Amino acid sequence: MNRKKAIQLIHIAKDQLGWSDCLYRDNIEAWTKQRSCKSLPLSKLFEVLQHLNACGFKIRAKPKNAPKTQRKLSADNQAKKMRSLWLQLHDEGVVRDSSESALGHWVKRQTDIEDLHWLSTEQKQTCIESLKGWLARIKRQQLKARD
Predict the structure, then answer these.
(1) Is the separation of the CB atoms in 70 and 87 below 8 Å?
(2) Per-residue pLDDT of the chain (147 residues; tens, 9 = 90+)
């Protein structure tokens, strides 16, 4: 464990135990003679963690099959249009995965940027036009197949 992870666990413990900032700092000072963990060596951070464990802190591991946290979807009109076209392509059967992550992977192949939040207006418009063209080709193929 590194310093950053140890300090992170100490702050998680503070929250889990329901301590105010003042109580937290008073305890840190009583245990280490300093009011902050920032400058403590790793060995002292481990001592603080032992004290916190004695106070009732329990490290809880995330289950391996826990769902990943979802980032908010980009809500601008262009992103909505891209999702709409993506779902239409899924309905036509040319896109197997209708998920946001699958759209993100396709966008990454087009623009080298996976997250729709980071696309410029021009990049989004280019993606929209590509999706429209793809959908138009599928419609033309379906019309030829009917004839």
Answers:
(1) no
(2) 788 888 888 988 888 888 888 988 898 899 998 888 888 888 888 888 888 888 888 877 766 666 665 566 677 899 999 999 999 999 998 999 988 889 999 999 999 987 888 889 999 999 999 999 999 999 999 888 887
* Residue 95 amino acid letter: V
Give residue 141's region: left, alpha or beta (phi > 0; psi -120 to 50): alpha
- Ramachandran category for residue 74: left, alpha or beta (phi over 0 → left; psi -120 to 50 → alpha): beta
pTM, to two decimals: 0.52
Q: Position of tokens 């009011």?
A: 35
- Residue pair 34/74 in contact by the 8 Å Cβ criterion: no
